[in-house]
Predict the 3D structure of the following.
Amino acid sequence: MNAPCKNTLLTARWIWRNTVELWQETSGAMALEYGLIAALIAVAIIGSLVEVRDALVGLPLQSAIDALINSLS
């Protein structure tokens, strides 16, 4: 297995550092804003999963994998 890219590790560290800072934020307005952002991200993820599910229903496994790869590119 290949070692992760240096940029990937830097990005992961940046995300982790910012996540910790967000959890330490005590402002109610900031918490509300981040809650709304998280809700919008969740809606986007659920919507995309529904679209992928509808495209893959009833297909054999290899066809489903091919369709998923084609939809991502």
Summary: The chain is about 80% helix and 0% strand. The chain has one domain: 6-72. Residues 6-72 form one domain. The helical segments are 6-24, 28-56, 61-72.
